[in-house]
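Repro case for the chain-ordering regression, as requested:
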Amino acid sequence: MIEFRQVEKHYGSFHVLKEINLQIEQGEVVVVVGPSGSGKSTLLRCINRLEAISSGELTVNNSKVNDKKTDINKLRRDIGMVFQHFNLYPHKKVIDNITLAPIKVLGMTRQEAEKTAMYFLEKVGIAEKAGQYPSQLSGGQQQRVAIARGLAMKPKVMLFDEPTSALDPEMVGEVLDVMKALAREGMTMVVVTHEMGFAREVADRVVFMDQGQIIEEASPGEFFSNPREERAKLFLNRVLNH
Amino acid sequence: MPDFSILTENFDIYLHGFRNTILASVIALLGSFAIGTVIAVFRITPIRPLRWAGAMYVEFIRNIPLLLVVFVFFYGLPSLGITLSGFVCGTLGLMIYTASFIAEAIRAGIMSVPKGQLEAAQASGLTYVQAMRYVVLPQAIKIVIPPLSNQSLNLIKNSSILGVFAGLDLMYFGDQIASRTYVTFDTYIFVALFYLVLTLPLSYMARQLERKLAKSG
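-- result from build under test --
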């Protein structure tokens, strides 16, 4: 359902993405790992056109993401996104954070949208926080709200951009648990993360990136026990042995 | 002690000017907020010609003395066959002039909202305009209130420019009273008091509003 064909991206003279070819099928959980600055987040942000690609072709549900004729707002309805810094709307209560897009984009009634929002808040385990402001919640709770906000649009795919990197260590687990549950239910997920345990346990496929390129693509079992590429070995040595 | 008979004997005249100062200020304020918001949005849109137009407006108008902006209406328009009263010219000039400052204040407010807010809103399918309206602008407003109340106070005080163009405002009638009674200093003390009657409550209200907004999330 997501396909990169020979995708390149430049920021001025900086070559961020090089010859990206990647296919993600419906129901798949793909975890993207690699050192900082390797282009993982950029790759993810191209999928919903928060970043534009320079050349090549990128399609989501057979729509060309960068085609002028593509209604990007419509395409984005089907792509949920969770950010490193949550990006909840601080001036809105938790429930209103979640209902905004369903009401304004999908045209749901407030009542319908609130019902949906409560369903997903329950799912991520913090229904009792519905009436509070984001600033009153812990980081882990905020990120779970952000996940509920993404799910409330009933997307076909969820993108996670380092969802646990800004969290205190004791809150990482609660967010990963929600993501694991989501993966088990068959949600298509693309996850950029440094959580190797999550990748090993949940991923259908691990994509290793370095310096803007996809260096290796393998099942987690294969990738973690027997990486083929030298750079992947080096990377795993650094992140796993300390 | 100022000579209070100046105030009591000319009270109707003062009041007449006071009313016109309020009228000019309210019209100019509403107009400059509307124009300023539009210009601010021009300055941050991804559409280049609009960005240019917005930048031109702000840089030109903001860097010309208010007096000369009003000149354009008072002396410029008649050459095109349009003659407006001093009151209208002064109010229009004030509106156009203050709008450039308000545009800058609003733009700065919008820029100070983290980029992730717009991204999160757009990623969820909201259009750019919706994302601005429901997510970015409500947050920018809190940041923008102090500079905007400043501009509002400046506008009220700057409305004394109408006096130069026979604009029938507080300053204009102050000049009239002073030149008739020769009690110049005392006359203008009362003029100043009338301005304070307008500006002090506004200043107080702005502080209250700030405090209230600071509390909510």
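Ordering looks correct now. The mean pLDDT of chain B is 91.
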